[in-house]
Amino acid sequence: MPEFRQNPITREWVIIATERARRPDQFVHKEKPKELPRRSPTCPFCLGNEHMTPPEVHRLSGPDGWDVRVVLNKYSALALEGEHWRRSEGLKRAAAGVGQHEVLIETPEHGMTTAQLPLPQVEKIIRTYKSRYFAVSEDPRIELITLFKNHGEGAGASLEHAHSQLIGTPIISPQIRSRMEEALRHFDELGECIFCRVLREELAEGTRIISQNQHFVSFVPYASLSPFATYIFPQRHMASFGESQDAEIRSLAWILRDMLARLYYGLENPDFNYTIRTAPCENRYCRYYHWYISLIPRLTKVAGFELGSGFFVNITLPEQNAEFLRNVKIPEPAEAAAQ
Amino acid sequence: MPEFRQNPITREWVIIATERARRPDQFVHKEKPKELPRRSPTCPFCLGNEHMTPPEVHRLSGPDGWDVRVVLNKYSALALEGEHWRRSEGLKRAAAGVGQHEVLIETPEHGMTTAQLPLPQVEKIIRTYKSRYFAVSEDPRIELITLFKNHGEGAGASLEHAHSQLIGTPIISPQIRSRMEEALRHFDELGECIFCRVLREELAEGTRIISQNQHFVSFVPYASLSPFATYIFPQRHMASFGESQDAEIRSLAWILRDMLARLYYGLENPDFNYTIRTAPCENRYCRYYHWYISLIPRLTKVAGFELGSGFFVNITLPEQNAEFLRNVKIPEPAEAAAQ
User: Fold this and answer.
1) CA of A205 vs chain B CAs: smallest distance (Å)
2) Distances in Å between the alpha carbon of A329 and those of A127, A211, A266, A332?
3) How far apart are CA B158 and CA A275, in angstroms?
4) Tens digit of each residue's pLDDT (9 = 90 or more) over B288-317
5) Is residue B277 part of a domain?
6) Which chain B positions have a beta carbon within 8 Å of A197's beta carbon?
7) What's the whole-model pTM score?
8) How close, in Å, is residue B215 to chain A by CA atoms?
9) Which residue range forms the structural domain that includes residue B198?
């Protein structure tokens, strides 16, 4: 019989097709990922094409000029300059569309996905996330910082060169507010962070764990909304991603790359999004919220039922997803094998 | 400058690209809709293939046997039989996946989209929605009834023969609960239905109205989340779709078909979902909620920012969308012209 499962963090319900579930291997792409060229003359994110991007706001230098580069988004959702006004006229509520929208170019090489980059390069990406998190959070207009990555056309990426994005908004969305409230309610009742508790229960049960290292755990949540949707939780309680220490950043680089490699080699490079869900700036030290990464492969479509009811339907079993991902063989990186 | 707008009903914020907005006509499909055959020998929804569907639960008879047919869904998300249990084990919360999942076959003809059907046929579809709403709401396990339609592959439809679906769930999702709570809060503060107020303000302003008849109004909401997303509101306060009177059903058939024809002829048959958002069964007579239809053409993709922050980005202007849809020329139906 199908089963409803509830995510205790978001309170969202998903219908898990326990009997007629599709096997994880039915989601493997039929074709091997296509090889990309090392450089593309028309790609604004390639080495040598720096003049094709909007102004650079940050760079990590490297032997060829840069290893990671951060630029303003050419198609920014928000205006960089301007006051933050709010207006209310009857039920028409509006606010100034001010904020920061940046693109983080993850590598000078066109042909590499994040999963294939050497570990030290992924560390540089995460360190850049943290630098930009701090830089943007100093803007007094900014209330919430969303770091995310779109990979592949089906996930909304318009350029294939590996990149992430940061958007700082002067408003907190009701989705984030309601999650903060739920976490606060749990803390108020039981004196514990609900995320710390979820992590403890997942580790004790073990069936949905994918990888683990000193500071992080990746797992398929019990009430996973879609096939292979995965969480990465820091083991130490931290409300804000910005509080991560150096050792944690190294550890995060390892587990994120591990997770992306499992998708890349196990499912043949599916489209995906990931997002760092960190506390709003004003709650960065709170005891009840815990930052994490949510990674969503885009293998199925949201349709009328999900849009109209808020319920999700997952046609796979979270436990089988986790087992499949645990068993993926990740090849040694070429440069490591060559050494 | 871009502008944030907030939907007072859902409290969701959308960033409207007021300056670099794309013009509505940029969303028109390059190709004319393909012609479908009148019958398809392999389609389970075609006349003569009734043996290919799961059991029929309802039919409206017609000269060829039936005009509208309702069958159980072959790939039901929920089990029809069984007790509704709830279970809680640590933070693992689950419930029996019981409920009703039906498919409403809108016409015996394979080649017709809802927009092209004669008006009396669309009335029959809506009357069938109401019959099934009542039949399913008599099941004491059912708390929420979601009526919806997926049109086109990009909207999650797996069969091209025109059909809608009904899912009755034993649980109310947090999305629905939070909307009920917001509506109740507004009622509690101001003694009015927030939906009635939105409708009054939209009619007074007029710039986002598409169509209007005696009982219904279609409009692009002020904080529309995506291009051409549209609401259809009944003018009379009713919490539940099931309360619609005969005259209202005729009026609804007209405005729904009018709206679908504007999409079909104006944008060349885009993929879309619509959903009837009606109050949970236990709230069917409440004063603070108001049922409506939400219609969402699937012209853009949700990406990492939307998934990770709960904010939406609309690259069109609601006022321009409404103007474009108002100006669509709808051809006379062939059978009317022939008479």
Assistant:
1) 11
2) 27, 13, 8, 9
3) 30
4) 999 999 999 999 999 999 999 999 999 999
5) yes
6) 90-91
7) 0.95
8) 22
9) 47-74+95-330
